[in-house]
Specification:
587 residues; alpha/beta; three-stranded parallel β-sheet; 35% helix
């Protein structure tokens, strides 16, 4: 991790900082809906560092004022392209609760008040550039907000099918997915005057279709027929693996959205390199004057061990954005990052997280998938019933990594705050129990959060989650190991109400299970939010099972959604009077 010991600087966000580097103009200006935190956990910072590494001059503008030209003109017009991201979280998810109430807080805004991230930030920032820079260089979209909206998509907040975001935004191109290699190719192609439309991982609008690509249902067909929208989503979801995926072509009002095949995944040495860039791991001073950013507390001393997730929960967009194949960093690189923390003056010995989208997917993958890509025809690595026999879960590499991190002088505690799939622990007959013991003894403090989400087999089936038996077995293993270690630690549970297929009767079933089997009264549950890029959002819009196209129940009334949540968090079981209240009854 040689770069970590070099003198570090933020990427410039003011003209003064440009002058300090001897720059009169920039090659690339990046715009984001977050305050600029220079961290490997912040996509815009990673993109900036990647472009810097290939020799381009890059600047970043975080949360520009959308009512004036002060911020958008702050760095001048770039020479090659503008990069626009809504931020680390889809702006609509960031701004609104599942019941569409405005959120007052924003963890990525200085001071914490939600007053700087506009709704549909990607569209707003693109229009802001167009307003003040006529005939400018290409505008390129990226980030999760754009990536998951790249084709016709259901938008919960307007309750409509919206066009691919390139048509609404008036941008020129989009880099979708993680986009590390695609952004390198884009920068070099634009610098060298090459045609960028050949780049893998890129979307653009064309007057003509690409005949060799898979022709998917048009926007008009999706509007007229919900089953056609399911067909489109299936094509979107199934063509994210760079080993075999086809390019996609969708007609939208006489023009065509072209999605090139996905960009390749990074190799381990490339993952290491990107993690080793000279991140400041801090909020840029330009923003610091306005207050602290809460997100920094979580990510400043956290370690990302890998990308990707093959869990494929139907309500989660990670599979469609990061991919279903795990790409890991080397142990040496991870340990070098942990050792680097100990050299920083504000490090107190606590590593906030060691993990990824799912912490216990580090260090192993299906050999078949590594050679041929993810399976097609809806065959998943794990479903509601079992783990695929070719996926050999093995926590041994992860165990050794955690032990090595703990052995670093000045590291007092390394938490695992990322999600953990408890069913995989049980599936690993050789090292699963040992892994859980490591976590119980060294990597949690008082409680461990897991995400069963529900316990009804019918609802779990629609969620793509394992049955409740694996939860019962895990809880027993957890309790037994805590007793052996002489610790009094407990499990907390993430639960979801009003997911497609879930009725009030299912929530009463969940309440009974948490009371009698888990011996708890849940203090919180979240109402399901249909986010773009997920099968669950398709279920919510179509009221059909996307795998069978059979009708399913979907709760769409806001009060009844809240009631589902109330049922499971109530201190006592609902009395008959409340059951017959104005919320009504379902199921």
């Amino acid at each position: 991790m040689s770069n970590m010991n070099k003198p570090n600087k933020f990427l410039p966000t003011t003209k003064e900082e440009m002058k300090q580097r001897g720059w009169d103009e920039l090659d690339v200006v990046l715009i984001t809906g977050d305050a600029y935190i220079d961290s490997p956990f912040m996509g815009i910072a990673v993109v900036g560092r990647i472009l810097e590494d290939i020799g381009l001059r890059v600047g970043i503008i975080g949360q520009p004022d959308i009512n004036s030209d002060v911020d958008i003109k702050r760095l001048g017009e770039p020479k090659l392209f503008w990069g626009v991201s809504g931020g680390s979280i889809d702006s609509m998810v960031s701004n609104y609760t599942a019941t569409k109430k405005f959120r007052n807080d924003d963890d990525y805004t200085p001071g914490g008040k939600n007053n700087k991230r506009p709704d549909r930030a990607t569209l707003v920032y693109t229009n802001l550039i167009r307003r003040y820079f006529k005939n400018t260089v290409p505008i390129v979209l990226g980030g999760i907000e754009a990536s998951l909206r790249r084709l016709t998509h259901y938008d919960y907040w307007s309750n409509t099918l919206r066009k691919p975001i390139l048509f609404d935004s008036k941008a020129d191109y989009m880099v979708y997915g993680m986009g590390e290699q695609a952004i390198i190719d884009l920068g070099l192609y634009l610098r060298d005057g090459k045609d960028v439309r050949t780049i893998a991982g890129l979307c653009y609008i064309s007057k003509e279709p690409v005949k060799e690509y898979l022709q998917i249902p048009s926007h008009k067909e999706c509007l007229e027929n919900k089953e056609k929208y399911i067909d489109l989503f299936r094509a979107f979801y199934d063509n994210n693996d760079p080993m075999y995926s086809k390019g996609l072509c969708q007609e939208v009002d006489g023009r065509f959205l072209i999605q090139n095949p996905p960009s390749r995944y990074l190799e381990e040495n490339e993952m290491d390199k990107i993690a080793s860039y000279p991140y400041q791991r801090d909020l840029h001073p330009y923003h610091a004057k306005d207050g602290k950013v809460k997100a920094l507390e979580t990510i400043k001393f956290s370690i990302m061990t890998h990308h990707g997730c093959w869990g494929e929960c139907n309500y989660c967009a990670i599979a469609a954005h990061q991919g279903r194949t795990i790409r890991t960093r080397s142990e040496q690189n991870i340990l070098s990052e942990a050792k680097h923390f100990t050299t920083l003056k504000d490090f107190k010995g606590i590593i906030s997280d060691v993990g990824g989208p799912t912490a216990n997917m580090y260090g192993y993958e299906c050999k078949k998938k590594m050679n041929l890509g993810t399976c097609i025809d809806n065959k998943r690595c794990v479903d509601a019933h079992r783990l695929c026999r070719t996926m050999k879960v093995d926590h041994s590499r992860n165990i050794k990594l955690l032990k090595d991190i703990r052995a670093i002088p000045k590291v007092k505690k390394a938490f695992i705050a990322s999600g953990i799939r408890y069913d995989f622990i049980a599936a690993d007959k050789n090292h699963g129990k040992e892994y859980l013991k490591e976590i119980i003894d060294h990597h949690i403090s008082g409680q461990m959060k897991i995400a069963p989400e529900h316990t009804s087999d019918e609802v779990l089936h629609h969620m793509g989650k394992p049955g409740k038996q694996s939860l019962i077995e895990f809880k027993k293993m957890f309790d037994d190991l805590n007793k052996e270690s002489g610790k009094k630690q407990f499990l907390t549970y993430y639960l979801i109400a009003a997911h497609p297929g879930c009725k009030e009767s299912h929530m009463h079933e969940l309440k009974q299970f948490t009371t009698h089997e888990l011996k708890i009264n849940p203090e919180q549950a979240q109402v399901f939010t249909p986010t773009p890029g997920t099968y669950s959002a398709v279920m919510y819009y179509t009221e059909l099972d996307p795998f069978t196209k059979k009708k399913i129940f979907v709760e769409k009334d806001t009060l009844r959604k809240e009631r589902q949540k109330e049922i499971v968090v109530a201190k006592k079981s609902f009395c008959k009077t409340k059951q017959n209240s104005t919320f009504g009854m379902q199921g």
